[in-house]
Hints:
The protein is mainly α.
Amino acid sequence: MYLLEYRDSEIPLAGGVKLRIPDNVRLIGTMNTADRSIALVDHALRRRFAFLELRPNYDALASYHETSDYDVQPLISVLRDLNTQIDDKNYEIGISFFIDDDLELNLRSIWQLEIEPYLEEFFLGQASKVNTFRWNKVLERLGE
């Protein structure tokens, strides 16, 4: 972290060589703000670097699937409703789950193996909210 802040410095490594980050190297990091176990690192980074908030970009998801045979608009509607229920920008379901060339084939497993377990944990003790977004309910909304 020191070298990220002080580009003109070098640090010695255990092997006896020195390391520095050249001026022409740019680093782009991603961070999940929902992970509170790294709060101290988060604060240290926020003091030193620029941050851009990236929220789910439904237009990007639609654009990705423009050339596919899969109509992603009903899924986008489900995601909008789900993220409204989540009601916390740090915990929203993003679009990266659905950037998939075989989404129609893989959507069921993505939803049941990745989204539902997340919702069960997030909505712990709120079974009705989880049940609203179970695969069978989502499938009905997708018109399949």
